[in-house]
Amino acid sequence: MCVDRRGFFKQATAAASAWAVGAGTGFAGEAEVYEAPESIRSLKPMLDGIAPITIDERRVRIEKAKKLMAENGIDTLYVESGSSLSYYTGVSWGRSERMFAWVLPAKGEPAWVCPKFEEERARELIKFGTDIRAWEEHESPYKLVAGILRDRGVAAGKIGFEESARFFLMDGIRKEAPALEPVSADPVTVGCRVIKSPTELALMQRSNDITLAAYKAASATLREGITQFEFSANLAAAFQALGAPGGGAGAQFGKYSAFPHGSITPQKLREGDVVLIDGGCRVEGYSSDISRTLVYGKPSGRQRQVWDLERKAQDAAIAAVKPGVPCEAVDAAARKVITDGGFGPDYKFFTHRVGHGIGLDGHEWTYLVKDNKTPLRPGMCFSDEPGIYIYGEFGVRLEDCFYVTEDGGKLFTPQSPSIDQPFV
Question: Model pTM greater than 0.85?
Answer without folding.
Answer: yes
